[in-house]
Fold each of these.
Amino acid sequence: MSAVDDWAYVGTLDDIWQGEMCAVRVGAGPDSVDVLLCNVDGTVLAYEDKCPHLANPLSRGALADGVLTCAAHEWEFDTRTGDGLNPASATLRRYPVRMDGDRILVDVRCAP
Ligand code: FES
């Protein structure tokens, strides 16, 4: 991913308040990655903005009490872990997040 720095700046804590989620794009062109940021209890987590079911953008869903519900077919995910709640076999692709003060940095080169 030549167009993407190791740690990409994606915004600040002012951009995503506790209990909120938002979509950001890291990089440009064919190497870009759509990322979903979730602020759960003050912790920012980053996931691929693509549902593991049929790839609907998860950012179009709803986030309540840490549970993300996909807008397309209502699969549910625990945003604290990325694990599926319904169905439990699904898993979100998670990206590492690093904070620099209130700046949010995401590494999209790999996912655990
Ligand atoms: S695309 Fe998300 S539940 Fe079907």
Amino acid sequence: MAQWSEGYVTEIEYIADCFPDLAPAHLNLALLHRGIAFPETEAGFNYLELGFGQGVTLTMLAAMQPQGRFYGNDFNPSHVLGARALADSAALDNLELFEDSFAELLARDLPPMDYIVLHGIYSWVSTENRAHILALIRKLLKTGGVVYISYNAQPGWAPKAPMQRAMLEFAARHGAETLAERFGAAREFLKSLEQAGAAYFVHNPVAQEQLAGLWDLNDAYLVHEFASENWVALHHADVVRDMAAAKLGFAGSTTLANNFPLFSIPPDAAALYQSAKDPAMREMIRDFAVNTQFRRDIFVRGARHLEPADLDAGYRQLRLALRRPLADCAFDAHLPVGAVTLDRAACEPILAELAKGPRTVEMLAALPALSGLHPSVCVDTINLLLCLRYLVAVQPTEPTVAMRERADAINRAMLARAVAGRYVAALASPVVGSGIEVERGDVLFLAAMQSEVPLPEFAWAALQRAGVSLTRDGKALDGDKENLQELERRAEEFKKSRLPLYRMLGIA
Ligand SMILES: C[S@@+](CC[C@H](N)C(=O)[O-])C[C@H]1O[C@@H](n2cnc3c(N)ncnc32)[C@H](O)[C@@H]1O
């Protein structure tokens, strides 16, 4: 570990992921669902991300929300360089990226913030750093301001704790040169313990599943997840206490379904959940009922409950778009409580209308096909579709030419990264106002559309440079002919099903 890293990983850069849940519009939507007032963003706002990693989320937000001022820190200079390069590609003038530790950031003179977000930080840093983070929130968050904080949670993450410790100890004694090799070997070591019939795995079937899941992680994720010396899984009640010391109260979750007990609390535990008076106790019951592994909490400094008229206006003005192609919006779906079958009479007209473009809830509620339904059914249906991530909250107005140009600039930079073989799973949407997920296989097709080369040939050339060939039905494809045929098939599917959605979201 480098001296300045305070036990955190610096040898490998973190993955360049984008988290649309960190967008002000998504945070505000979660608060609307909970009936809690949220910051007005139209006239301007300040937003701080602590530990921004590769900065993809923050940079895309800054590009798509010119009325906001965005700030962020990460103490890893490689991360800061990567984020600055992305910001420079769109000449952003509303974003400041600091190569600061949390302690150093505390000493800076920054304006009061409407939003402070930290994703994948709080359960990986030392107690001192958690205290610095709380001091930053206490110092910088406005009254009425919003904090998003995610963390590895108890009890679902608990079986991983002994595994993390064993990996840390094993890796510390292993002679390989790189951290990725040492933790790769540590993962194999755990596997050999399991195969030797270690009672820990026999008595903890969830640990067996979690162990198997380690092979889904790439090197960067594996190392950033497990190599921190300060790794801990937190109880929600502890985070509530920490936040209370900074004068914040729990206000909801960016996992939208969790804001609706009906969608997220298993029926058998519902009475127990409802009987608990203290919200922290309710969340504890939830975490045990569904064995929560990771939490995405929202806290506010002063919760003001919306009056019925404000709540109604908030919903009516809410503007929405499809988040996935219409054909992928299945009527048999899954929520944290289990399988649900959607009511076609209510869902079909809403989804069909949104396939034409973004609409407000007011416009959707006025659809003739919904006139026979009670108005609350329309809102309930929309909320359900949002919880299923079929829909996304978008900007209140159509994007300006300048916003589209900024999105195009960032997306050209992201697509160039994809063509160079780097991980890209999101692009900037001026319609949504943030980054939004795209199918990983589609990024090369989207890049090809900016060239004269046909999509399959372009994608195959990039894949060959990266030393990758495709598989179909689990079978590896061999040579140019088979790979190109498969890419032709995938390109047709892309054009038919996902390209119209990307166009609607301003990505393509
Ligand atoms: C797991 S990564 C998450 C990054 C980003 N939030 C994301 O989700 O993509 C944790 C990040 O915190 C940064 N970090 C860890 N300790 C820090 C500290 N004391 N001060 C500033 N940044 C820190 C790391 O460099 C890393 O980029």
